[in-house]
Amino acid sequence: MPDLQKMALAHELLREFGSACLRMREAAVIIQRDVLSVQAAIQTTVTPAAASPEAAARPSPLLELRAMTKTFGQVTALAGLEASVAPGEFVTVVGPSGCGKSTLFNIVAGLEEPDAGGVLRFEGNSCHAADLLGRVSFMPQRDLLLPWRNVVDNAILALEVEGVPRAKARAKALKMLPEFGLAGFEKQYPHQLSGGMRQRVALMRTFLFERDLMLLDEPFGALDALTRAMMQRWLLDVWQKYRRTILFITHDVDEAIFLGDRVLVMTARPGSVKLEQVVDLPRPRRPEIVTAPEFVRLKRTLLDAIEEESMKSFQSTVAQEKAL
């Protein structure tokens, strides 16, 4: 190709390339102008809804569970459970036998991992259940006092495990004895204590293991009615002083209402939250409140929900037995 033709072709290509670049710059300017116009329109026409005073005052959950599921082989213990607990809140959990209450506690205590797909958040951060091991205090149904240790040495067991010197741990426990109704009993051994006193030692051990969240799994279930009522009032006094966050399992509806800020009613297995009932009764709560009309109304609502789930559980058990 002659040189003149090559030069002309190169000139033409450069001219086309320059025109293309100019068109691209013009298009970019138009797009940027349109984007700015849309953003301005959004800002002037869409105003975020103001949060309600209740929402603004509501603290972020200390514990949050979303879509929580747990299976054991062919048995699904929990399915899609949703729950949250705010700092300083006292939440009670009731439901029919076998609904997964203890499984829920084992997950929150870090003893069991839920199935994949759920969300577990503690102190605002996503975590695995195993991350909670040692970050929450857990009192099971039995007091589990060591028979060869006296009251004080049983109470300081968790502190010793954490490495606190025994003398320092004992001094701390001795100061708390009067608040737990154990003054003068520091040298007694478990076999020398009543059932209520053994539970107070176990609760003192749980309180001394200073964690923001306490899990109490039917701590008064084995006590007689009178001792149970006294322990409930005593626990509220201690809770109102220390304001630890408490998640409390019980089969006693009266206990759930008397103690709790909210009551979670679980479904028959597989367990989830059927009803979340706010307990809007004044604190401090006096023993006579259990006969008040508003208390009775709450009790009827909760009993209706539990009885419905208990019937489902019973029918399911009967159907399984027939199939065998």
How would you portray this structure in words?
The chain is of the alpha/beta class. It folds into two domains: 45 residues; 190 residues, Rossmann fold. It is 45% helix and 17% strand. A six-stranded mixed sheet has the order 6-7-8-3-9-10, sandwiched between helices. A four-stranded antiparallel sheet has the order 2-1-4-5, with no helix packed on it. β1 and β2 form a beta hairpin. α9 packs across α10. The protein is globular, with a radius of gyration of 31 Å.
Give the integer mean of the pLDDT values.
84
Number of domains: 2
Uncertain stretches of 5 or more adjacent residues: 16-56
Spell out the CATH superfamily of the largest domain: P-loop containing nucleotide triphosphate hydrolases
- Please identify the structural class as seen in this structure: alpha/beta
**DSSP summary, beta strand count:** 10
CATH topology of the largest domain: Rossmann fold
Order of strands in the sheet with the most strands? 6-7-8-3-9-10
CATH class assignment of the largest domain: Alpha Beta
Task: Using brief descriptors, characterize the structure shown.
alpha/beta, 10 helices, Rossmann fold, about 325 residues, six-stranded mixed β-sheet, 10 strands
Summarize the structure.
The protein has helices spanning 3-45, 53-57, 101-108, 151-155, 157-161, 166-176, 195-208, 225-242, 253-259, 293-323; strands at residues 63-72, 75-85, 90-94, 119-122, 125-126, 137-139, 213-217, 245-249, 262-266, 273-278.
